[in-house]
Structures are given as structure tokens and as C-alpha cells.
Amino acid sequence: MSLAALTRLQLGLAVRKADHLERRRLLLDGAQGAHVTINGQRVISFCSNDYLGLAADPALVQAAHAALDQCGVGAGAAHLITGHHRFHHDFEAAFAHFVGKPAALLFSTGYMANLSVLTALCDRHSEVFADKLNHASLVDAAKLSGASFTRFRHHDLAQLEGQLERSTAQEKMIVSDLVFSMDGDLARVDALLDLAERYDAWLYLDDAHGFGILNDGRGGLTERARASDRVIYLATLGKAAGVSGAAVAAHPSVIDWLLQTARPYVYTTASPPLLAACLLESLRQIEAGEARRERLRSHILHLREGLVGLKIGTLMPSDTPIQPLLIGTNADAMQVSRSLLQRGLLVPAIRTPTVQLNTARLRITLSAAHSADDVAQLIAALHEAV
Ligand SMILES: *Cc1c(COP(=O)(O)O)cnc(C)c1O
């Protein structure tokens, strides 16, 4: 690399820092949970996606120990060579059954699953229609697919319909987060499905934040969407499920096509089978998880009631564990986040470019692992913050 290129990087880093956009990693010791040690400080964490408190659950830890003794650590090969273990296979069947779809495929991460679905099902003859607030991995996947990429304003289905009407693409795919990751609101699944049917499009729904939570844990699909061959469903498994990976559920021919052609599936080592064993246990915990979901619902109500009349920001409308507190500028959001941290409460600021200019926010996430007192402490600290 020439020295000039290195200087440009250093300049770029300095600009990010001056714009309050510099990203730094917090250092976690011990297990993930509601109470964690971050940079050596004990804090109450309101920022993980471990919504059900399963990431360090004893039943999952035990499943990991048991599987480790049976199958070791590494998968050793890609799924299509010798890496496809019975644990992976059993999880796929159990997952498909649970979410009410005929078949499923397990991926190492949600990012890779999104790359797989869009690049395998779309090409330069396709058009992808995407809600503007979709997750970054869906944007990257659409671009990589070579399809023309058309975005519609958040929830603006009239605009989407106009775009579908004008499209001359051979294949159309409507793509949406099911629960929007920075806002906590839900896609209008049946209305999207109506449009997909009217214009003969696929409907791909990324339910990273709804699986394990909505509809007794089965995720945000409606009954019609479960039954529709044109709906392709993604759940990521590192959030409420508490483990790692992602699963796509769809018509068996879609799943077979992904298995045959999705490059991020074919050309990568299978995830460690012990993780799939943990996922099987996680699925059991999610199915029997009504008490966890009830605790989570009561925390959401408690927080929303407690923050009525707050001066420094406004809670955005959301019934999910994602409860964003809109602040405004990057600098103000950072300031509130820092003052909370001084009181032992970890709530990171989400800034541009992740969200639009002047909509910087604290992305508060709640978990069944929190106690009512944890939530009460956050409410009190926010009322005292300036
Ligand atoms: C987290 C997330 C992903 C990526 O999933 P990983 O398993 O973390 O790679 C994809 N889509 C959405 C909406 C997400 O929130």
C-alpha cells in the first residue's frame, strides 16, 4: 500500500472522530445478561438483543456441555462436504415445524442468510423493493445480487404499489424487516402480502427481532403468510434465541434452490454442531417461554408508563423489546448515554449513519432477564438526566 493511501485512511478516521461518529468496542467480561461487567465496571445493560435471557441460560449451557462431549468443537467442513451434522439437520426440521413453514435451512449468521437469499433468488433481471429502514445486511444483499434496487418510504405501501406497477423486471422481490431493528415497529405483513400477490412477487421477511417474542415465540408471520408459498421467512438465532446463526424457512423448492446455489451457504464451513444442539434446546425454551414473554411485556409497560412526560426525549411508538428514545443530535444522544453510564446503566446511542440525521436515539432494549427494579432505575435516571 502506498503511503498516500494510508494518510487518507488516517484523515478519514480523524473526520469520523470530529463528527462524533467514531466507533469503539466495549469490553465484556463474563457472561452476557442483564447485569454485566463492561470495561471493568458492573452495569445494568439495556442494549443486548438477548430479549429472553437465554444467552447464558443454564439449560443452554448444559446442552452445550453435553454436545461438546458428543461432537467436539469444529464442524470440519462445509455442509455439502461432511460438515452437515445431525444436530443441524434436526434443528432445521424443528424450526420449520415451529414457525409453520414446510422446510428450513440453517446459516452461520443472519448476514450470510440475507446475502444467500437475495443473491440466489435475484439477478440482473430482477427488481428488489425495500423499505428504507431495512437492516444494512438486506441493503448489501440486494446490491450484491445485481438486481435493480428500489426503496420505498418506511411503511409507504402506496409508493411501493406504484413502483411494482411500473416494474418491468422478470422477478420481483419485496424485502422488509418484520420488526424494524432501530425503531421497534412492525411491518404490515398482510398488506405486503396483498401486494406481492397482486404483482406476483416474492415477499422476504427478516424477523431478526420478532422470532422468540411475537405470537408465542413463533415470530411475526400472520397465518396467511405462513401458508403462502411466496413468503420466505428469516429468523436470526443470536438474538432472542440466545445462540448464533439464522434460519430461512420457505417452500421446499426454495430451500433446495438455496442449498444448491447460495454461495454464502455452499462455500463456507458449517457452524459448530454444538451450536445447533444449543439451538434445539433454545427452541424448547422458546416454546415453553410464556413466563419469560410475560415478564418482558410487563417491563415494556412499566418503561412506557414511567417515561411519560420525560423532558430529554420521546419514546417512539413500539410494543416490542426495542424501545428507542428519540433524542436528536449525535452529540446530545452521546451526552445522555454517558450520564447514564456514570450511574451504572448501559444504553448506547445510535447515531448517523445507522439512523437519519437528527434522529439519534438511545436504543433501549428490554429483556426477561431484567428485574422490575432494573427498569425502575433506568426510569429514574432518565428523569434526572439533563
Ligand atoms: C441482527 C440482524 C441481522 C443480522 O443477523 P446476524 O445473525 O447478527 O448476522 C439481520 N437482519 C436484522 C434485521 C438484524 O437485526
Automatic annotation (TrEMBL):
Looking up SUPFAM superfamilies in the UniProt record yields:
PLP-dependent transferases
Please, which domain of life does this record's source organism belong to?
Answer: Bacteria
Q: Which InterPro entries match?
A: Aminotransferase_I/II_large, AON_synthase_class-II, AONS_Proteobacteria, PyrdxlP-dep_Trfase, PyrdxlP-dep_Trfase_major, PyrdxlP-dep_Trfase_small
Amino-acid positions noted as binding substrate in the UniProt annotation, renumbered to this chain: R23, H135, T354
Residues covered by the Aminotransferase class I/classII large domain: 43-382
Major enzyme class: transferase
Pathway listed for it is: Cofactor biosynthesis; biotin biosynthesis
Q: Does the keyword Transferase apply?
A: yes
Q: One biological process GO term for this chain?
A: biotin biosynthetic process
Family annotation (Pfam families): Aminotran_1_2 (PF00155)
The catalysed reaction is:
6-carboxyhexanoyl-[ACP] + L-alanine + H(+) = (8S)-8-amino-7-oxononanoate + holo-[ACP] + CO2
- Annotated pyridoxal 5'-phosphate binding lies at G110, Y111, S181, H209, T236
Q: Does the keyword Nucleus apply?
A: no
Q: Which UniProt keywords apply?
A: Biotin biosynthesis, Pyridoxal phosphate, Transferase
- Cofactor(s) the record lists: pyridoxal 5'-phosphate
Q: Which residues carry this modification: N6-(pyridoxal phosphate)lysine?
A: K239
| EC number(s) given by UniProt | 2.3.1.47
Q: Which GO terms describe its molecular function?
A: 8-amino-7-oxononanoate synthase activity; pyridoxal phosphate binding
Protein function:
Catalyzes the decarboxylative condensation of pimeloyl-[acyl-carrier protein] and L-alanine to produce 8-amino-7-oxononanoate (AON), [acyl-carrier protein], and carbon dioxide.
Assembly state and interactors?
Answer: Homodimer.
Q: Which family is it part of? A: Belongs to the class-II pyridoxal-phosphate-dependent aminotransferase family. BioF subfamily.
- What is this protein called in UniProt? 8-amino-7-oxononanoate synthase
Species of provenance:
Sulfuriferula multivorans
Species classification: Bacteria, Pseudomonadati, Pseudomonadota, Betaproteobacteria, Nitrosomonadales
* Name of encoding gene: bioF
